[in-house]
Amino acid sequence: MNSGCQVADRIGELEIVGNIVPHLWYKNITFSSGKAHFVAITLLADIVYWYRPTMIRDESGMIVGARTKFKGDMLQKSYQAFADTYGFTKRQVKDAIDFLVDHHLLVREFRTISTSSIILSNVMYVQPISGNIKRVMEERCNVSELTSVCPPVTPERTSPSVPTSAQLRQGEGAPEMEEGTYTESTSKNPSEKNEQQQRAGECPVTFFKENEFGRFGSYMQGKIQSWCERLSDSLVVEAMKRAVEQGKHYWSYVDAILMKWERLQVEDVKDAREKENESMVEKMFTKSSRRAGRKPVRTEMLPDWFTEEGIVEVPDESIDEEFEVEKAKLMAELEVFRGRKSPHTSPVFE
Description:
This protein is mainly alpha-helical. Helix content is about 50%, strand content about 10%.
């Protein structure tokens, strides 16, 4: 079909697949100040994309059915997966997801997935609330006006979280909670996934208790949970392992390690080791450069008469000369004194 514009015809031939952002979202999904929440809008568009069904066509091109782009009853995707996709920080992603949940546009669940070999804790699942999303798409309705809408209860959600063998085969190849999503696509090979799943299977709370880091209560549980959300379970466990190796079984040491990793924007255990090695090499190079850039210290040759203690020894000859001069003066004065005294001496009687 010819539209009369060559560029428009060429663009029409492109198969554009991806997120769709309705223009009203920039007016409806906003902060309290009225500015559009771009991170929340981007993440919501991504989630809605995954929930848009994929049409199944026959050989003639007719639609014969539909299927979801992910496996299971809800989309599984981590904060880090969103951050890697769109270049946000993990903190930005978490704040945006919290915003969408608080304003009734999203449902979020944390599940524990157990198998015979590993346990994945705090696996995040998300699901859009279609009724409220329809409102912000079709009418001038700010997110502050939305009310809670309970999503429909499905048989999958009410079933236990322990997957069956069929579900495991269906979700095979899904990356672990820290970096990926249980969706159709994955970039990790099986060996990397198995290694990361074993690391993720270590529970930070269990490790804390078994290695006696202190009394475990609601406060420490909140601290550990906070760090797991900001970084990951595997990094929290790795920090506690390093504290154990150093013989420092107290949380402040672990907290310092985690703050350093957050400052370096560490993604996983491997990334932590690589960035620490880079930091160490950079420090050594800087130290060597400073030493090489120092000006040479000028040294002066000391005379032979300067002793090691820094005391100046006066040569003996100079001492003798001064002594002889003083001696000669005294002798001359003595002779003058004797010459003056001799005429006045009393006569000697025989």
